[in-house]
C-alpha cells in the first residue's frame, strides 16, 4: 500500500481472502509436481499454512473458527482440484495443512498475549 497508510479492518476482510486464494491456488496449480509421485512435502504444507494462520490470528481480522474453517476448506479444495490439472492430491497433504493451521493459530495466540 502507500507508505504510512494502514488498511482498515473492513478492507482487510476482503483483501486477505483474495491474496491467500491467489497465492495458494497458483502454488498448487502452477508449481510442477514432484518428480517422484508420493514424495509429499509435508513440512512445506505445514509451514505455509502455519504462516498464514499465524498472521490472520495476529491481525484479528476474523474469528478463530473462521480462520481454521476457511484455511481447511481452501487446502482441501486445492487437493481435490490437483488431480484435474496433472498433479496428485493427497489426504496426507490435507493433514499437513491442518497441522500447520493448528500450529499457526497457537503461535499467533501466544504472540498476541506477549504483545499485550
How would you describe this protein?
The protein is mostly helical and 116 residues long. It has a domain at 44-116. The protein has 4 helices and no strands. The longest helix has 25 residues, at 91-115. It is globular and about 45 Å long. The model has no long low-confidence stretch (mean pLDDT 80).
End-to-end C-alpha gap = 26 Å
Summarize the main sheet: none
Query: Looking at the structure, what is the overall shape?
Result: globular
How many helices? The count is 4
Helix content: over 70%
Short summary:
It is built from 4 helices and no strands. It is mostly helical.
Question: Which terms summarize this structure?
Answer:
116 residues, 0% strand
Q: Topology, pairings included?
A:
Elements lengths: L8 H22 L11 H18 L4 H18 L9 H25 L1
